[in-house]
Amino acid sequence: MTESFHRSGENQNPYEGQQPAPVNPEWPPPPAYTPAQAPTPTPSASASAPAPAPRKRPRGPVALLAAVAIVAAAIGGGTAYGIQELTGNDTVTSSSTSTNVVPSSQKGTVSGVAKAVSPSIVEISAESNAGSSTGSGVIITSDGEIVTNNHVVSGASQIKVTTNDGKSYTAKVVGTDSKKDLALIKLENASGMKAATLGDSSGLQVGDQVVAIGSPEGLSGTVTSGIISALDRDVTVPTDEEQGQQQWGQGQGQGGDQWPFEFGGRQFNGDTGSDTTTYKALQTDASLNPGNSGGALIDMNGNIIGINSAMYAPSGTASSSSAAGSVGLGFAIPVNTVKADLAKLRAGATD
């Protein structure tokens, strides 16, 4: 509405002599409150400038729209608050991802992570010409795709997988990548599996709390916890299949899969041989033992942030794995490396 102004002393009535405008019965009555008075205008440099007349209270549809806008704003603010409460912006412990797999009542607890993620972790028993060994794996699809280490299934002629609830399946290798020590296997005749949530390892920081789940020494569903001890560790592992089978088979009868690796110019758990590859790994002090390879390293929201791949054995050789134990030096392949490799693995790569 355009306001009109007149100079002081001119008491002209612009509606004099006119019939009053009819009142629309559909317009609501003015609100039952006294509107706030307009602020007193600040005197301008020119004393002769006319003072503006008070703003007239809007009537009819304008007043109705204003009231609706106020109500909508109030509802909008309440909705935003409700969404904030429901989504839970207080993500606990981890900076890697905002996805919360663990129920809010158990956030930040090892027991909460274990309960939420254990159904997605499996035990893998593999048979080859070199012997037998036990490792772990992570279910990533409901129809039974499982990520594990290449060295867990390398050269295997038969693979048996046992899920967290005790069910057994046979599995076939889909694809392998020895340069990253990754493999993808697929359960036969499986459906309705609980898939793990793959997180984001790019935001991890030294000191972040983590949980490891796997089958050390054939003890399926074992849960340990610790922190991220270091990032981007250069870990060197063998890519030669024959070398891998030789070391892999030495764990026969002990549930071991101690994989020879090199770090800092020193070799651990046996000779890595001449054909090796190096990848950037997460270092953790969460207890890892023979059989944890291929299992999950998890943040406190329940997201997979790494695939456990190597551990330092004080004995120095895989053949004496029964005397080996965790000393808090474990390594995991970052989950972002896994995600970047999935398409290749699904396509049947055999590198």
Uncertain stretches:
1-10, 64-96, 243-257, 316-323
- Mean pLDDT comes to 76
Quaternary form: single chain
Percentage of residues in strands? 25-35%
Strand numbers in spatial order across the main sheet: 1-2-3-6-5-4
Largest sheet: 6 strands, antiparallel, barrel
Tally the helices: what do you get?
Answer: 5
Helix content: 10-25%
What order do the helices and strands follow? HHEEEHEEEEEHEEEEEEH
Tally of strands: 14
Termini Cα gap: 76 Å
Helix/strand class: alpha+beta
Biased composition (Pro residues): 22-42
Pfam families: Trypsin_2
Organism: Streptomyces venetus
Keywords: Hydrolase, Membrane, Protease, Transmembrane, Transmembrane helix
What does this structure look like?
Residues 1-58, 238-276 are annotated as: Disordered. The chain crosses the membrane at residues 62-83. Residues 22-42 have a biased composition (Pro residues). With 351 residues, the protein is of the alpha+beta class. It is 17% helix and 28% strand. The chain is built from five helices and 14 strands. It has helices at 61-87, 110-117, 150-153, 241-249, 335-346; strands at 121-128, 131-139, 145-148, 158-162, 168-177, 182-187, 209-214, 222-238, 261-263, 266-268, 276-284, 296-299, 304-311, 330-334. The strands form three sheets. A six-stranded antiparallel β-barrel has the order 1-2-3-6-5-4. A six-stranded antiparallel beta barrel has the order 7-8-11-14-13-12. The longest helix is centred in the N-terminal third of the chain and has 27 residues, at 61-87. The protein is globular and about 50 Å long. It starts with 60 loop residues before the first helix and ends in a 5-residue tail after the last helix.
